[in-house]
Specification:
InterPro entries: Puta_zinc/iron-chelating_dom (IPR005358), UPF0153_domain (IPR052572). This is YkgJ family cysteine cluster protein. This protein is an all-alpha fold. It has one domain. It contains three helices and no strands. The protein starts with 51 loop residues before the first helix and ends with a helix.
């Protein structure tokens, strides 16, 4: 499955603990990645600077749903389930 045009949910919803160029401490959940373009495309796609966790995340029908809002809801649910906050 290819990424949905103008979605970017996977670059907004999840937290990323590893450094990202321009975000040396990673990013909190729900914060738009600094590397996300206005068209919701990753500026680091295919580059070595892209965090491994980002490169490992593959679009799927389950994760992406049928819209950006469905993808954000799914990723928010995963973030909540895997959060280390107590």
């Amino acid at each position: 499955m290819d990424c949905r045009d103008n979605c970017g949910a996977c670059c907004i919803s999840p937290s990323i603990s590893s450094a990202i160029p321009g975000m040396p401490n990673g990013k909190p959940a729900g914060v738009r990645c600094i590397q996300l373009t206005d068209q919701n495309r990753c500026k680091l796609f295919g580059k070595t600077e892209r965090p491994k966790v980002c490169a490992a995340l593959m679009p799927s029908e389950e994760m992406c749903g049928h819209s950006q809002s469905e993808a954000i809801a799914y990723l928010n649910m995963l973030e909540e389930q895997t959060s280390h906050k107590r």
